[in-house]
Design brief:
Number of strands: 0
Shape: elongated
Radius of gyration: 17 Å
CATH topology: Helix Hairpins
Order of helices and strands: HHH
Number of helices: 3
Helix content: over 70%
């Protein structure tokens, strides 16, 4: 999945997407252990997608915390 597509989603949508990716990764690992997986590189791609997603979630959470701190300091 492209980073630009992930950045367009909200934090809640990103967390749902993370659950989907983790389920897919579990299924891929299960298939790999049984010898049924045809494309081994898909495991690596899903792991990278999860890492991208978590990075974007962290960025958005820090940005939201920064905005809240600015609003709180402006009222004092």
């Amino acid at each position: 999945m492209k980073t630009s597509e992930l950045r367009a989603l909200s934090i809640d949508e990103l967390k749902l997407k993370e659950m989907d990716f983790r389920k897919e990764l579990f299924n891929l690992k299960f298939q790999l252990s049984k010898g049924e997986l045809e494309n081994n590189m898909r495991v690596k791609a899903v792991r990278k997608d999860i890492a991208k997603l978590l990075t974007i979630v962290t960025e958005k959470e820090k940005a939201a915390a920064g905005e809240a701190a600015k609003r709180g300091a402006g009222n004092a």
